[in-house]
């Protein structure tokens, strides 16, 4: 009964026209994600300050100093701790949003990493810094999974692509802010603190706003119906329908009947069943590959610029200019997100990233390096919103968060080791070595996506029937 009811609820949501009511939910969820992106992206911009503070000298790293023979230059342990925490959050705890609800986990995972990040900002050794970064990363990983799941289930199928583009436009808009703060505060000691500590604290304190945001975001009706809470789901959908009807001054068309999703227990084993095994393998390998380009550039851009002959202070300024491009990739995507097949957008972004990083590795002119950095960032963020939407579409409601967490977790562990690998490649082969590493990874990612199913304009229940 819950399966059929869930299909009816989904059909009612999918027939809703574009409206302020629907988009306000996307915006509110995205504003919650702003703090998570701030926390995730400050890594590259506070790196020079952390290194200058001496936190990554062998005597400060504890047992992490054993990585020093790998020529990671210390900071690689912080990158590793970040993504190791994200890996645990997405793989081990990705299921919690399937069990306890999207809204509940959306709130508490944000509070988790906010508290941990505040504690991290006051640590005085590289070892303690890495440990608290790892713990905070667990909360960030859970939040990433929950947001992707949340948006896919609340938004009508004909608007899902734009919803992810708008979501990432809003969340990526915080990246230039992080870059600007790092550039403007570099060399100062606000309130007697190192500038990088202040950069970290600003984002953490701002996350308190989530308590006000959560009150206006409903639980996913699809999730409620799948868990037998049909009356709650009915009330939420009826309220959304009432608001859309009043806003648009229309009578809603009857919902088109949707085939219900197959029954299942929603266990980890299910994502390896005959119906989903191929998707799980494809997306797992894709995630391992794509993140090497995406975060390999974003987390290391000031350092990459230094290795291309740019002074450390100037590199933060140039990195800020490049960071401005972050929200404009998804903004461009709003023009075609639901008109072009998701797979095509992902592959085009990956191909562009591979070509641009190859040229970047040979360039030395500051203006050319900035232009190439902007192009890489635009392509990466178009690819990003498209694949976040794509992987959320490929699994049924009962296991969506768990499945996203599993396949996404491979990008987290890959990024953790990629951070170490990039440190080694920079030391031994310079930026050209990093470019080859990223280019090969983009090729693998393209091959994986080409093997996946098409999803353009299809209801979630149709994709997973």
From TrEMBL:
Membrane topology: Multi-pass membrane protein
Spans traversing the lipid bilayer: 21-47, 67-97, 104-125, 131-151, 163-183, 195-213, 281-301, 316-337, 344-362, 368-387, 407-426, 432-451
Domain Major facilitator superfamily (MFS) profile: 25-456
Domain of life where this protein originates: Bacteria
PROSITE patterns: MFS (PS50850), SUGAR_TRANSPORT_1 (PS00216), SUGAR_TRANSPORT_2 (PS00217)
Subcellular location: Membrane
Main localisation: membrane
CDD domains, per the entry: MFS_SV2_like
Presence of the UniProt keyword Electron transport in the record: no
This protein's UniProt keywords: Membrane, Transmembrane, Transmembrane helix, Transport
Similarity field: Belongs to the major facilitator superfamily. Sugar transporter (TC 2.A.1.1) family.
Protein name: MFS transporter
